[in-house]
Amino acid sequence: MNVHEFQAKQLFAQFGVPVPRGKEITSPEAATAWASELNTPVFVVKAQIHAGGRGKAGGVKITKDKAAVAGLAKELIGKTLITHQTGPKGRKVHRLLLEEGANISKELYLSLLVDRDSGWPVFIASTEGGMEIEEVAEKTPEKIIKELIDPAVGFQGYNGRNVAFALGLNTIEPAVMNPFIQMMGNLYRMFMEKHAAMVEINPLIITKEKTIVALDGKVSFDDNALFKHADVQQMRDLSEEEPLEIEAGANNLNYVKLDGNIGCMVNGAGLAMATMDVIKLAGSEPANFLDVGGGATKETVAAGFRILLKDPNVKGIFINIFGGIVRCERIAHGVIEAAKEVKISVPLVVRLQGTNADEGRKLLAASGLKLEVANDLWEAAQKIVKLTGKAA
Amino acid sequence: MSILVNKNTRVVVQGITGKEGSFHATQCKAYGTKMVAGVTPGKAGQEVEGIPVFNTVADAVKKTDCDTSLIFVPPPFCADAILEAADAGVKLIICITEGIPVNDMVKVKRALHGRDVRLIGPNCPGVITVDEAKIGIMPGFIHKRGVVGVVSRSGTLTYEAVHQLSTLGLGETTCVGIGGDPVNGTGFVDVLPLFEKDAETQAVVMIGEIGGDAEEKAAEYIKKYVKKPVISFIAGITAPPGRRMGHAGAIISGGKGTATEKMKALEAAGVRVVKNPAEIGHAVKAALGR
Description:
Structural class of chain B: alpha/beta
Largest sheet of chain A: 6 strands, antiparallel
Helix content of chain A: 25-40%
Largest sheet of chain B: 7 strands, mixed
Number of helices of chain A: 14
Order of helices and strands of chain B: EHEEEHEHEHEEEEHEHEHEHEH
Strand content of chain A: 15-25%
Oligomer: heterodimer
Distance between the termini of chain A: 34 Å
Radius of gyration of chain A: 26 Å
Shape of chain A: elongated
Strand content of chain B: 15-25%
């Protein structure tokens, strides 16, 4: 689960990671009120959307004029920002972060995530703050600093010193050495306690006043651990999510919307991805990823149909089930019942394999439903692509 | 021969009185696996399909000499269950549970490090040595004893591959699901040497997916140490970056972990990479010259 920058910064503040004074704003009036209270020489108005690249897309405004803040807020609220992470449709701005400006002396990069190879948390740091870290890693890999943290004992002072010296803080600004190390420790504590999946501060700045400040903040949380944190759950902003994905989630379905024309419904995540891949190989594009899980029932299949058919791009549906513990004749019953409830207006290919597959296929063939039945994955993919036409 | 589990493996099921636990314990027993004990705290003295239930894994080990644990405990209590099994002296822990918090697994993995215990999973279908022991949730009947070792991050996609191998008459030795989570107990690089050493295994099918760099690490290992033919499919060539595709670990982040990168690394290591998942079986057949 992703959260907004203002929420990330609230958490930072709670854990002792210094941030600029700021507040979430949803109207020009509120902007004026908070600007008066802030009383700072420079005001920064930042669009809050769950995507990076806001600055380049015009989503960040800076002014020294307190009276101009409301106008900037008015301009940004309701605006659609298109960044390299939003896709061509962009994201509508519903809220802003209004905060005090900072006197930047040096920009750094710092993030924390779990290194999948070792299974240990790892800090990634760089002197190239403000740049995309992927770009830094590609062009100047020697500028990427990695520090693994032993989860048995947690963050230690030496972890912080390793990073601080590697960044050259002792020569850049010795006064921030200790605050920086302390901040790393606080960030680690937040990461573990709140079950974050990733924390990124870009840029982390050294100010002209010789302090360390998280000028930006990006935090995502481990969905599997949300049950432990009611406060984190409350940070969820549904307006930032795809409506069909929210509906799927409410039905315990795992759905990701894509841009193609063939809707697919599959049991199991790996097979669902493989089904998408095979659709492409057969000459078309998948409209979605949809895993109905191990215990697919009539209800889950019906919910799946409803979601797939709400996507106007869907020109055909491909159901691919490998019956293991789930028996294929039960899936067939589910498809037949669900198809009665949900009017299916597009071609449908059902491929059943595994436990009681023959029986399932016979049921479908005898159901009178307009659908094609297949045994083999490749045969099924070719059928649905033939029925819907190849991608342009 | 086979790897990890065989007809002498003695299994304890943690969470045996739950819906999943009792169902699958019964299925595993019906397959012929030695299901010798179950554990649910507070339910000692009960039986599930003739399998005695104990309060603790330590009790189960003492009374039944079980050496392998199969875990169905719900995610909030699962880290605890894995550590309990390890402390009780179980040598192989197979964790089926999906949805364990990553930071819990970070601590578990660290705690198991350097100890004489292997964790498979979590979020995996388990391990089966065909006709000897089924320790997991895979459908037993699709397997046929043969010559191919299978190791995979996925569940149903593995069944798909196994079905092809069985239908083509190649059959399998042992199939290992290592799971779809970002932090797991056993990786491709841990399973590959076992298959390489196993006399009965003539070829290895390795099924990967987007996210992380386990496949790239496997490619390095294969290049150096694996002489047997390895056939691989990587799921998710059509997956968009930054989106979690069902499995917690199946995500392309920061441009890393794409299917294309993994395929390239594997091909460079001499692995036969199949682009069409429907052709896994045929590719193995061709590699074995049959």
